[in-house]
Amino acid sequence: MKGWRPPAPFLLLLPAIVVLAAVVIIPLILSLYSSFTPFRLTQPASLYTFVGFRNYARILTDLEFWTAFGRTVLLLTVALNVEMLLGLGLAMLVEKATSGQRLLRTIMMFPMMFSPILVGFQFKFMFNDNIGLVNNALQSLGLTDQAIPWLIDGTLAFTAILVAEIWSSTSVFAILILAGLLAMPKEPIEAARVDGCTPWQTFRYVTWPFIMPFAYIAMTIRSLDVARAYDIVKIMTDGGPAKRTELLWTLVSRTAYADARMGLANAMAYVAILLSILFTVYFFRKLAAARTQIAAEW
Amino acid sequence: MNENTKARLNGLLLSAAHKIGLFLAMTVICLPGLWIVLASFRPTVEIMAKPPVWIPEDLSFDAYVAMFSGVGQGGIPVIEYFRNSLIISVTSTAIALAIGMAGGYAFARFRFKAKSSIFLGLMLTRTVPGIALSLPLFFVYSKLGIIDTHFGLIMAYVALNVPFTIWLIDGFFRQVPKDLAEAAQIDGCTRWQAFWQVEFPLAGPGIASAGIFAFLTSWNEFALASQLTRSVNSKTLPVGLLDYTAEFTIDWRGMCALAVIMIIPALVLTFIVQKHLVSGLTSGAVKG
Amino acid sequence: MATVSLEKLVKRYGAVEVVHGIDLDVADREFIALVGPSGCGKSTTLRMIAGLEPISGGNLRIGGKIVNDLPPRARNLAMVFQSYALYPHMTVRENMGFSLKIAGQKPEEIAPRVEEAAKTLDLTHLLDRRPSQLSGGQRQRVAMGRAIVRQPEVFLFDEPLSNLDAKLRTQMRVEIKKLHAKVQSTVIYVTHDQVEAMTLADRIVIMRDGHIEQVGTPEDVFQRPNSKFVAGFIGSPPMNLKDAEIADGHVVFSNGDRLPLPSRFRDRVTAGQKVTFGLRPDDLYPAGHGIHSGEDADVYRHDLRVILTEPLGNETLVFSDFGGAEWVGRMLNPRRLAPGEALPFCFDLSQAHLFDGETGKTLRG
Ligand SMILES: Nc1ncnc2c1ncn2[C@@H]1O[C@H](COP(=O)(O)OP(=O)(O)OP(=O)(O)O)[C@@H](O)[C@H]1O
Ligand SMILES: [Mg+2]
């Protein structure tokens, strides 16, 4: 006996676990702890005062927080669904193209290469009420003679953020769904056409059931980093004007860095993390089910 | 006869609609990027002109010249930023790939207890929003004194990329039939040799596409970088973009030029591996 | 009435023409088999009929009506694919009822038709399974069932049996024959298995490189091939086809061996003409081990040396040397033969074929 030898998978996973523990888990535990303190960056000693659930209690009754929370959920729901629909449409358009597939696919991936912060600046530039492309175009076309205050009016700003977010992330859906369309066997589609299906019915009954898991994959991948939207919002409006586009993440960062109330911010962050986890676990479940179905049947 | 003409007309209309739709979609995708490229070549007065100047009259490289002309002369330390970005992205991608390969191989080839829970657990670490992570990370890093160092950001990015890398690579190794490695072992390879000689080359394209994703994530990341960097020692390009913003004004032209500099490496890299990217993603993610 | 007519039907992929203006009239309720070597355009032709491939030129009529540009759903036909093309995410029942559901029929109308088709094909116990849980033969039957349920005017089959093992194939062949007798639809059946074509079809269409070589009943194409190609393609083992030259009333082979020129070809050839001489293995047999089809005078006897034998049980294929080439003969009531053994052979020249050496066309009247 040479003593206990750890099993191979454990050894293989060890580096991943160590890194994630060091960079994610330990800091998170720390922040969990600090969310039970009134910790302020300016007063290091406050880290050692324990206040129990006071931060959480404050969040629960904080209207500002719940507005941001609701707005975040709304943004994610609308964005993910629209991205999914547009991605589906885009993938089908590209798949049907008879020539120039390579070029089309590369263009399709174009927005994925843009840093979210860049997307933020880009759309801030385009939606600028004075010099932005959007207003310039509208005015030159004679559709309006005033400068529309895209980033100043609350609803318009939310729309502008939504547009930026959708522009930057539709690619992920399009690419995965396109991959699904390409992997799909052609015969069932032909059989459906001979069986009397209109193009819409062919899509509805044959194509869609096949590419659904791909849509779930895209949803899962996207839900892994929905918080990328933070960068976009941070640049475009930074939660303004007057907190009318405040999202969970901008609120957290403002509370932490501008107001320096780390403890409270960490408590908020925990709620944001929980939200992310819920989204992800939900799609993971769906994905796993859809995936086993595809593996078993197609 | 009539029916045929109608059917043909229908087909023609459909294909015309398809072409128009495709064209519109591509325009919407390309326009913001092209607008930025264009703006980087135009003088500020033209960008700011009212009524707008649609047809550029005065294109020049002034913005780029200014950018490189050094701090103090309207430039920013772009070479340092670029160097930081490159070092941090490449190193963290390499490390994330190595760790991801080990982890992905474990998930693809071994059975062990609580496998799917461990997998989900790893994935969930990725869902932690950068901003939520940056608060405690900032605190830990300041205690350790690794704020504003390459090392600090590299570690953070490795952690950010490992889960997704494992996911993709796991899928790729599953694609490679087990028999192949076994055949290689019967042919006299050790398990280690079998991995490098047989399984690794076959999963290669997939690993490359995982690498692209990791690289793009690191190259483009902002939320963490903005908190964990301070100076030209470690500031990356996304953070550098902020140099062009002042309290109430933004130097659009300069920013557009920097944006172009930022996009080019990502564009080149994606172009090189684009062939494997789509197929890689699917087989990796779906068939897993 | 579901006649199908191809009029100068052309298919081009870009600049490459793969089907060169073929003409074919299929009568109502006829069973037509399309055969030909791989890549000759059988599937392409079938897919043009189905509406899955756009037609590049000519006309296609179904029931007299031109349907060139109509989508498949407007043509009222059913197709069985080589890979079956079942819908993987539907049960057998849903697969079979799908076309009716699409056509807007009510579930209570669909159910009996599916049940009936399932009974015909012996699928009743499998109705609630998914295709992935079926064997190859069962999947094939489901694919057929899906076609029958529709009660279309035209059935199209693209090598439906080629993925099955030999035994199952024979069995399914019989099923298809019974089915055709029962449903009385027009059938166009693509295959590269000539046994299927011979046993199933009313008429066989032999294609080659995008052209139709010959159309005829199985008997026609077997006994009266129009060309060397058809002669060599139909029949197994294939006909002996040997190049020769006509000289003073004989067919002379490369090494000088000669056979008398059958009288029916006498005024169709000239001395010195290059020809290809064809004789089926059935018409070349060791004396006493075969059947004369014509008169005794037409049988030419000659001693041949055996090179190799392939015993098949009830008969033996005998390879022997004549005219500087290898000929296959068929020995009924076989006895053991030793390689190298020489024995008298009968050439039944009443069944011989003669083709032009250049064009490959038959020289028969
Ligand atoms: N999409 C295409 N583009 C170009 N050429 C094609 C295409 N599809 C088929 N062909 C060509 O058309 C010819 C006819 O093909 P087809 O599939 O009809 O052959 P087939 O007779 O069915 O052969 P098999 O017995 O192997 O199925 C082939 O030479 C093939 O290479
Ligand atoms: Mg074919």
From TrEMBL, chain A:
GO terms for biological process: transmembrane transport. It is a multi-pass membrane protein. It is found in: Cell membrane. CDD domains: TM_PBP2. GO terms for cellular component: plasma membrane. The keyword tRNA-binding does not apply. The chain crosses the membrane at residues 12-33, 73-94, 106-127, 156-184, 205-224, 267-284. It comes from the Bacteria. Residues 69-283 form the ABC transmembrane type-1 domain. PROSITE patterns: ABC_TM1. Pfam families: BPD_transp_1. Belongs to the binding-protein-dependent transport system permease family. This is Carbohydrate ABC transporter membrane protein 1 (CUT1 family). It comes from Shinella granuli. The lineage of its organism: Bacteria, Pseudomonadati, Pseudomonadota, Alphaproteobacteria, Hyphomicrobiales.
From TrEMBL, chain B:
PROSITE patterns: ABC_TM1. Its main location: membrane. It is found in: Cell membrane. This is Maltose/maltodextrin transport system permease protein MalG. It comes from the Bacteria. PANTHER family: MALTOSE TRANSPORT SYSTEM PERMEASE-RELATED, MALTOSE_MALTODEXTRIN TRANSPORT SYSTEM PERMEASE PROTEIN MALG. It is a multi-pass membrane protein. Part of the ABC transporter complex MalEFGK involved in maltose/maltodextrin import. Probably responsible for the translocation of the substrate across the membrane. Residues 82-273 form the ABC transmembrane type-1 domain. Belongs to the binding-protein-dependent transport system permease family. MalFG subfamily. One of its GO terms (cellular component) is plasma membrane. Keywords: Cell membrane, Membrane, Sugar transport, Transmembrane, Transmembrane helix, Transport. The chain crosses the membrane at residues 20-41, 85-107, 119-141, 153-173, 194-216, 252-273.
UniProtKB/TrEMBL annotation, chain C:
GO terms for biological process: carbohydrate transport. Keywords: ATP-binding, Nucleotide-binding, Transport. It holds the Pfam family OB_MalK. Belongs to the ABC transporter superfamily. PANTHER family: MALTODEXTRIN IMPORT ATP-BINDING PROTEIN MSMX, OSMOPROTECTIVE COMPOUNDS UPTAKE ATP-BINDING PROTEIN GGTA. This is Carbohydrate ABC transporter ATP-binding protein (CUT1 family). Its main location: membrane.
